[in-house]
Design goal:
single chain, 586 residues, alpha+beta, two-stranded antiparallel sheet, 9% strand, rod-shaped
């Protein structure tokens, strides 16, 4: 046998039978809802709207130093305003939460209560990014609101919060610009000190290696080449002059220094043999004296010959001029030998001894009374001319030797400069590279400092991104909480639902025996016959009328619910827009 299935009519019968259990609880709960809703204290909300305005001057001309987004700055300002000290200051200023403070509630509790009544909401819109050209969501404004039981206090606190947001934004932006400028100035001063220190190091380096700098390398090389050429030229000239001195010395040795009385330069050749012989003996005598003692036989022999020729020619042996001439000639020969041999060479030593002997003879001759010889002889002009030529040549050689020493010293100095150039260049390049990099960074910092100063002026004159109050907080005329119409609708619906639920529970537990299944379950056996309910025409008409009434009531309730939702819960157009938006995201 089939199990009994309840239809809509059965449920309607149940509701009709239990109408008392539906109506009484629903009415009682509805009355309680009305009492509770209208007994709740009203909370008023005052709200101000602040517009986020972009920078008036284009960013290409003056770039702001504040790089954070408005959303971030709003949140930062909110956190600064919601500190315990500032919250308690506003609580005491506007005498908020007097009951809680009289009960000596904890400060944290009052602060949390204040924060729960503060609301900062962003207003976003679809905008076009000027850089990428794409559509995006951007914050164009934000609202600041405060809720309190007193509408005047709500307006005062909301106005205080709006003012603090505006002031904190200006203060934060100007402080950020000033800090950026000060930071760049400090860094610029540091790099300026570094630049000066590097310039000082470069100046000291140039003073220390003034001749070995890289830019003087070509000059030093050219000077080395020129001094080398001059050194070779002077050396060749010295050799030529030495040959001339040697030749002139040989010629001088064949010419007598003095001419006898009555003999002119043109006739001097008639007696030149004895005079030449006398000069040769004197030279030989000086040579022997440089080697031997005056008592040596060879020295004594040459001395007797010299005395005999001097008597023959009438020339005195103590003539200082003769000794001086021999001394000059001996010094010339010493210079010639010095160029060929070392100082410890025997010829050098012998020549030095000869010079010492001539100097001693010259001293003895000067100490003796001078005899007049001008009456019997005079200087040979040819000898004087040749001797002058030799002396001038020797002076030129001496000058060239001094010049050679100077060239040698300069050449060594220039070679040292060239050898140091590459090491100096490496150190100099490091210094100049550091100097150039530091100067470039210094200039960059100074340029950024100027930009930061412009940005500071931009912020101080409120030409940058700013917050503008477009709707100040007003004293609310309508309570924000509780939403009594909404609570009433919800309460009445809940009351009706509670009545229906209670009726169904009563029917479930105390509904009696109804239907084939329940009879079979209680008796334990299946009924022999099931007699269906015989409905008369009158009952059918009455049921139809009742059903129509319930349908009409349901429609009216549905219409009333839609109207209540539209006016007291949410606008139907907004609800439809949200539903369509959710569907489009699926």
């Amino acid at each position: 046998m089939e199990e009994e299935v309840k239809g809509l009519g059965d449920y309607l019968n149940i509701l009709w039978r239990r109408k008392v259990w539906i109506i009484v609880p629903a009415v009682l709960l509805a009355i309680a809802t009305v009492v509770v809703v209208f007994s709740l204290p009203a909370t008023y909300k005052s709200q101000g709207t602040i517009l986020i305005e972009s920078q008036e001057i284009p960013n290409d001309l003056v770039r702001s130093t504040v790089t954070s987004y408005a959303d971030q700055r709003i949140e930062v300002i909110k956190q600064r305003l919601m500190t315990t000290s500032r919250v308690m200051e506003m609580v005491r200023k506007y005498d908020l939460y007097r009951t809680e403070r009289q009960k000596m509630a904890a400060t944290s509790t009052i602060v949390e209560l204040f924060k729960s009544n503060v609301s900062v909401d962003l207003v976003q819109a679809n905008v076009t990014d000027p850089v990428s050209g794409r559509a995006k969501r951007a914050s164009i404004a934000f609202t600041v609101s405060f809720m309190d039981k007193s509408p005047q206090k709500a307006q005062q606190v909301a106005n205080e919060l709006v003012t603090e947001f505006l002031n904190e934004n200006v203060k934060a932006r100007t402080d950020r610009a000033a800090e950026t400028k000060d930071f760049l100035k400090e860094e610029g001063d540091k790099f300026q000190a570094k630049v000066r220190e590097l310039e000082k190091q470069i100046a000291e380096f140039k003073d220390r290696y003034s001749g070995s700098l890289p830019e003087l390398l070509q000059y030093n090389l050219s000077m080395i080449e020129r001094l080398g050429d001059e050194q070779n030229t002077n050396q060749n000239e010295i050799l030529l002059l030495k040959d001339q001195i040697t030749t002139l010395s040989l010629q001088l040795s064949t010419i007598p220094m003095y001419l006898p009385l009555g003999v002119t330069a043109s006739t001097g050749n008639e007696t030149s043999t004895s005079e030449v012989r006398l000069e040769q003996l004197r030279i030989e005598y000086s040579t022997l004296l440089s080697k031997y003692e005056p008592t040596h036989p060879d020295v004594v022999r040459v001395k007797r010959q010299i005395d005999a020729l001097e008597k023959e020619l009438g020339v005195t042996g103590n003539d200082a001029q003769v000794i001086q001439a021999e001394l000059d000639q001996a010094k010339t020969e010493l210079n010639t030998l010095s160029e060929k041999y070392a100082d410890n060479h025997p010829d050098i030593k012998a020549q030095k001894n000869k010079i010492a002997g001539l100097e001693k003879r010259l001293e003895n001759a000067d100490s003796q009374p001078a005899e007049t010889t001008t009456s019997s002889e005079r200087l040979n002009p040819a000898y004087v001319q040749l001797k002058s030529k030799i002396d001038s040549t020797e002076n030129e050689v001496s000058r060239l030797r001094v010049r050679q020493e100077e060239i040698k010293t300069k050449l060594a100095e220039f070679e040292r400069r060239v050898s140091e150039t590459y090491q100096v260049q490496r150190a100099y390049d490091e210094l100049t590279r550091d100097h150039e990099n530091t100067v470039a960074k210094y200039r960059e910092l100074r340029a950024k400092q100027l930009q930061a100063e412009l940005a500071q002026n931009l912020e101080s004159e409120n030409k940058g991104e700013s917050f503008t109050l477009i709707e100040p907080p007003a004293v609310p005329s309508k309570a924000e909480k509780p939403n009594r119409p909404k609570l009433l609708v919800l309460g009445l619906g809940a009351s009706m639902g509670a009545g229906l639920g209670l009726a169904l529970l009563v029917e479930m537990f105390f509904g009696g025996v109804r239907g084939y299944t329940q009879v079979a379950h209680i008796v334990g056996k299946s009924p022999l016959v099931v007699i269906p309910v015989i409905t008369t025409t009158r009952e059918l008409a009455r049921r139809k009328t009742l059903r129509n009434r319930w349908i009409i009531i349901a429609i009216l309730l549905a219409i009333a619910s839609v109207i209540a939702v539209h006016f007291y819960v949410i606008n139907l157009e907004v609800l439809w827009y949200r539903l369509m938006r959710k569907v489009s995201l699926l």
